[in-house]
Fold this sequence. Notes:
Blueprint: E1 3-9, E2 16-18, E3 25-27, H1 33-36, E4 45-51, H2 63-76, E5 82-86, H3 92-102, E6 103-104, E7 110-113, H4 126-138, E8 151-155, E9 158-161, E10 166-167, E11 176-177, E12 185-187, E13 191-193, E14 209-210, E15 218-222, H5 229-237, E16 243-248, H6 258-269, E17 273-278, H7 291-298, E18 302-303, H8 309-322, H9 326-333
Helix pairs in contact: 2-3, 3-8, 5-6, 8-9
Amino acid sequence: MKASILIIYTGGTxxxxxxxxxxxxxxxxxxxxxxxxxxxxxFAVRIDSYTFDPxxxxxxxxxxxxxxxxxxxxxxxxxxxGFVILHGTDTMAYSASALSFMLDGLAKPVVFTxxxxxxxxxxxxxxxxxxxxxxxxxxxxxxxHALVPEVCICFGAKLIRGNRAxxxxxxxxxAFASPNLPPLAEAGINIRYNRALIRYPxxxxxxxxxxxxxxxxxxxxxxxxxxxxxxxxxxxFSPEIRAVxxxxxxxxxxxTKHWFLDIxxxxxQLGKILLNVTQCQTGSVNMDLYATGKSLKRAGVLSGSxxxxxxxxxxxxxxxxRSDDNAWVKKMLERDLRGEITK
Length: 343
Ligand code: ASP
């Protein structure tokens, strides 16, 4: 039987086409996707599409869009073998990360893709990205189970786990990297799957559960030389802030000034959730390595291990949306829930 795929178009560069009259870029009608990308009809795949109205530039993505996407996948889950989400590249890593935590018991592929050049332009990367994303979303093993039952990003001939991805380039066709985990698949002459890295559900027949309520009371404080107590206090103490992602140096280090550690301790005592994420692209937080990291740990800061900021945000939104109990959120934060950290 033919696999069936739902392409969900949210907006972004990929769906743009040049208007022949005034040469401006406009979104094209996705119900005609097979006309635009005839290569898709060569697969034994039934393709339906769903277009968001209005389409959005991904700089405008909000958690409400993630809730819409999750709801759409839930409502059509039984009708399709896989989902391809066309999304602007700017915040794609945030959306893929968030969705990975919002979908419980996922047993089908949810593949994000987009492009750097519109699909209607010569030399576009959009066609190749889309065709590979569809092939991956439809791929099954001999038992009929999805080869990649994960939320992932297919871009520049690589398939990477969504919550490991980060946008690296505003120009290159290889726009995304997965600095701390090798790709789940690579598209060459064939698509080569790295099955040892792909996560499979404990049971294939569990119903998909979708979380749509997220708690967004998170701030991100990036440390930098010259940071002042006023700035740190602002990010840590606002009453509406429940959790703070501290973007630290190297292996999770921060300044050792008394005022800074006092502020961190005070925030911990106020019950704020404090998560240490490194500013480095690769490598992990290790707060036992240097005295500066140790002081943070003693002050109540949790290790984000090798999580990206994008994934840390989605994980916090999701965990805090599930419970008001900060002790539970802290316990879950240090666990690997969706392959987002290396344990
Ligand atoms: N600004 C666009 C967006 O993120 C860029 C893109 O699609 O690549 O929606």
